[in-house]
Here is the input.
Amino acid sequence: MTTAPVARTTTAPVPTQSTYQNRVADYWNAEENPVNLELGKIDDLYHHHYGVGEADWTVLDEPDPELRRERITGELHRLEHAQAELLASHLGPLTSADRVFDAGCGRGGGSVVANLRYGCHADGVTISAKQADFANEQARKRGIADKVRYHHRNMLDTGFERGGYAASWNNESTMYVELDLLFAEHARLLRRGGRYVVVTGCYNDTYGRASREVSLINAHYICDIHPRSAYFRAMAANRLVPVHVQDLTATTIPYWELRKQADHLVTGVEDSFLSAYRNGSFQYLLIVADRV
Here is the structure.
């Protein structure tokens, strides 16, 4: 009988963090939001992002209150998992010998999805020690701790090997950092021809400055949402050349409409997202780039 490897969180020395970075770490160390935890309990895949695709609206017709909650939770999780699979589908082709880097990994769902799809090694990084420990325990339970590891490190300065990764990504975590610093680290970590993928909310430059709704989202998550144009400027400055851009705005609205109906999961930010998407001030983008 074999025993699953013990997953240990590694921490790298990092430059003194700013007051803002410390606040972000404190926020995620304390976070126990049901919309993250209850969905993850379904199959032990804990995602910290939103969903895409058409929702199954029949879940709202369920007459039994408890079963209705259960079905809504399951449907939201399905939509979030579809988003994770969409991102992972753009990382390849990868082999089981390749390494991938999950920047801002949260409780680790994205790295598991990549490992299940490609059999690859994965390193996830989060500024939250609590999240890293949680994710490593999940990897141990799955028996993949020898290939999927999570680290309490700053994604702007990981200490990982230069050119050691075939692919890397951010899934709704870029709004916590300066894009030039972030993309410089991805370019350092990726081998030539490596693939970078980001899914993110960004404010629409054609609308003008950040709208009221975007400002409310920033306040809710203590983040700083970037304009769409900033992504392409920072990528160009850091040897990341976009090869595919997809506007996911229309495909994420059903997720938010359904989440608004989930009394047991609402956080109070749902109307801000829906209004911002509908008035054109906010977009949900997938950007795929090659490291040249």
